[in-house]
């Protein structure tokens, strides 16, 4: 017969017999965890004095003490402060590139990236700013692409003086696509690259979940798009200052490239590669 009982109750390990071991997990930035007692689920924003700050998908912040009482993918973990080595080993820029600590900004290249508006420029700076400073690439907004041909003739692209252009709503049959086609046939085609995303506005390139939506609302063509979005979200939109505040609210939800749609990510990376090619 099997011996159901140990012959020696004081044998090594008797206290741990049958006990479930909960693994520890370093609270590194952007790690998504759930706090068991409240059910609050969010990404790690920072760790200070044994307190971890989590941000949920609506942008709400909550503070919790490090320790037990957290879940990752439904499994319990004990959160601990990240070690210095772990923090240094995982340092990434917002675009996902490996960060270069204390690297000075490179002297600006002659090449440029043009974007249509201020919001486009602010979004590119927030996600790719560190990379662009390392590469010495300046991003300028040109307030639309209607005068792109004139802007290029004034800039005079050439070898070592390339131009990348990011265009909103670059879809077949659009005004933007006709402008891009004209550039490809123009005198500067070899040193100019025009790419674009399919979204009506760069706001749409932010994943809707970052502002608590499952999808961006449909806005009738008779309504100015930004105003329509603000109205659908219940945000003020009567004045231009309201639109500016709405954008800052959206931009504030963007932390890394993971908060943006891939249709924008690939286009910006393509432009950076193009203007930095030797």
TrEMBL record:
Pfam families: DUF3097_C, DUF3097_N
Domain of life: Bacteria
Domain DUF3097: residue ranges: 25-82, 111-276
Protein name, as recorded: DUF3097 domain-containing protein
Origin organism lineage: Bacteria, Bacillati, Actinomycetota, Actinomycetes, Micrococcales
């Amino acid at each position: 017969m099997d011996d159901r009982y140990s012959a020696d109750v004081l044998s090594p390990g008797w206290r741990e017999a049958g006990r479930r071991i909960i693994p520890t997990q370093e609270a590194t930035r952007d790690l998504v965890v759930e706090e068991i007692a409240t059910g609050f689920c969010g990404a790690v924003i920072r760790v200070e004095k044994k307190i971890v700050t989590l941000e949920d998908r609506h942008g709400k912040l909550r503070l919790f003490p490090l320790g037990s009482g957290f879940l990752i993918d439904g499994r319990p973990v004990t959160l601990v402060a990240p070690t210095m080595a772990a923090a240094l080993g995982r340092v990434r820029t917002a675009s996902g590139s490996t960060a270069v600590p204390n690297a000075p900004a490179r002297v600006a290249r002659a090449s440029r990236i043009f974007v249509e508006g201020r919001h486009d420029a602010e979004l590119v700076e927030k996600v790719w700013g560190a990379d662009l400073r390392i590469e010495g690439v300046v991003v300028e907004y040109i307030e639309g692409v209607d005068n792109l041909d004139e802007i290029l003739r004034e800039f005079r692209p050439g070898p070592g003086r390339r131009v990348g252009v990011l265009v909103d709503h670059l879809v077949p049959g659009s005004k933007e696509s006709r402008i891009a086609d004209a550039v490809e046939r123009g005198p500067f085609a070899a040193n100019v690259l025009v790419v674009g995303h399919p979204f009506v506005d760069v706001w749409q390139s932010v994943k809707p979940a970052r502002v608590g939506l499952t999808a961006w609302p449909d806005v009738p063509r008779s309504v100015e798009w930004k105003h329509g979005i603000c109205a659908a979200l219940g945000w003020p939109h009567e004045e231009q200052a309201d639109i500016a505040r709405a954008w800052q609210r959206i931009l504030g939800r963007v932390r890394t490239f993971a908060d943006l749609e891939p249709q924008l990510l690939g286009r910006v990376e393509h432009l950076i590669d193009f203007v930095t090619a030797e």
